[in-house]
Amino acid sequence: MARLAQKRREREENSKVRGESIRKRNKKSKEEKERLAEFQEVKLKERLMKIQKKKSAINQVSNPHQRPWENFDLEFAKREQLRKGMSLAEQIRFAKNRRAGTTA
Q1: Is the full-model pTM beyond 0.85?
Q2: Phi, psi of 63 (to 5 degrees)
Q3: Where is the composition biased (Basic and acidic residues) (predicted)?
Q4: Which of 16, 32, 63, 73 could form a disulfide linkage to 28, CB 3.0–4.6 angstroms apart?
Q5: Can you tell me the distance from the alpha carbon of 90 to that of 33, in angstroms, rounded to the nearest whole number?
Q6: Rounded to whole angstroms, how far apart are CA atoms 58 and 98?
Q7: How far lies 62's CA from each of 68, 69, 72, in Å?
């Protein structure tokens, strides 16, 4: 029992010494903190500029007034209107002709 108590005391003392030394190592001066903050700001600005460049390149390639999914919605609506105006037999004929046209 005495040995266990002694080992526990030694561990507590060692942890106290280590804890103080760790605290001392982690303290940074104001200058270091400011430099780190400036570096992080610069890095963030660089990342934002990269994103902005990518967005501008994408916008130049695609039409900004009509996005691809809007275009798809318009095509889908047109197809639905055609189907509503046609009879079932006409729809089947149209589908067969279209399928034959893609395979040929």
Answers
A1: no
A2: -80, 115
A3: 7-35
A4: 32
A5: 75
A6: 33
A7: 8, 12, 14
